[in-house]
Amino acid sequence: MRKLVSLLAFGILAAVCGTALAHNCPNEMKAIDAKLAAKPTLSKENADKVAKLRAQGEAEHAAGKHTESMKSLGEAKKLLGI
Fold it and tell me: What global pTM score does this model have?
């Protein structure tokens, strides 16, 4: 019985965490947009990468691929120094 309760609790926790991450994509995009609005000093190559990753992250979020979206947006934030 304890195992069943533990597994059920873990499943609920995993679902809640997954949902929380899914809803964080827009906040990540807002952080990237705010940093870009401040005109950071970036090489042309890095600026292009950030723009590509930001667009990719938004498309992945819209497609429901939140894990992939968070990865793409995280890479963009890393390039921006966020």
Answer: 0.71
Query: Distance of CA 23 to CAs 8, 9, 27, 47, 66, Å?
Result: 23, 21, 8, 26, 8
Q: Is 65 left (phi over 0), alpha (psi -120 to 50) or beta?
A: beta
Give me the domain span that covers residue 62: 2-80
Q: DSSP character for 24? A: T
Element (H, E) at 48: helix 44-62
> Given the structure tokens 């679902």, which residue do they identify?
15
Name the one residue in this structure whose structure tokens are 């939140």: 66
Secondary structure (3-state) at 31: helix
Q: For the chain, what's the residue count?
A: 82
Query: What would the pLDDT profile of 8-50 be if each residue is shown by its tens digit?
Result: 555 555 554 554 445 699 999 999 999 999 999 999 999 999 9
